[in-house]
Amino acid sequence: MNLSKLFEGQKVVRKKIIETNGLEGQDLVQNSILALRVELGELANEQRSWKHWSKDRAPRTFVREDCPDCKKKGYYRGNPPKDKDKGVHGLGNHWYHCERCKGFLVIDKNPLLEEYADCISFALELALELGIESGAKVEEILIPYSARKNITKMLNQVYLSISDLEININYHYARKNAVLSEYNGLLTNLITLGILLGFDYEQIETAYFEKNAINLKRQEEGY
Fold first, then answer.
1. Separation between Cα atoms, residue 189 and residue 44, nearest integer Å
2. Which of 41, 80, 171, 176 would give a disulfide with 89, using CB separation of 3.0 to 4.6 Å?
3. First vs last Cα of the chain: how many Å apart?
4. Could you report the per-residue pLDDT of 1-16, keeping only the tens digit for each?
């Protein structure tokens, strides 16, 4: 995984957020820690396997939405657009290119992966806030066979890693090596969680940059 590439992408969004919201010079570390915890909770909510009280414990990996741009123009799945040269749009003949749905009149999403991408975003943001991104790295990931299906345990481990990092930030802020070590542990656990959820590095990077583009657009539109 090319962390440098991910950090460069996050720097662009972070710069826009700071400029747009007048946050220059503000310490946003605690905000970023809380945001990461919230996003991890939203990820867990989409994962669902830990909800032993519910019969609906299947991960939310697919949802199909109508494209808001197409609907605004009066297009929907039962009423596709027409072209004088190409005729009626067929869902198997995607000549109509909507920038949101890419010609399909609908947007297919993976809520679980999207929430995971948000977690990655705030993990990167946290390193940028702490000024330690240059030393951030994912340690060798070795997942014991007994833990390969224990996603609940890994979710809790990521929460614990966030708390361990926060303690180091609060008590050893001047000792950046200690903070960096805890951060790398958090990052490794977060990537390990992604692997346990069934994502590979390519999926994670693609999902991150797709959400990165959305986040940037939101700032430009006054989110």
1. 15
2. 80
3. 30
4. 899 999 999 999 999 9
| Model confidence pTM above 0.70 | yes
Cβ within 8 Å of residue 215, ≥6 positions away = 13, 121
Residue 192 tokens read as: 């390990």
The 3-state DSSP class for residue 141 equals coil
Q: Quickly count: other Cβ atoms within 10 Å of residue 72's Cβ.
A: 8
Block residue for tokens 């747009």: 20
Strands (E), the chain: 63-66, 82-83, 87-88, 106-109
Angle at the Cα of 120 (from 116 to 125), degrees rounded to 5? 145
CA angle 169, 118, 19 (to 5 degrees): 75
Residue that the structure tokens 């330690």 belong to: 132
**67 Cβ partners below 8 Å, 6+ apart?**
75, 98, 100, 101, 104, 105, 106, 107
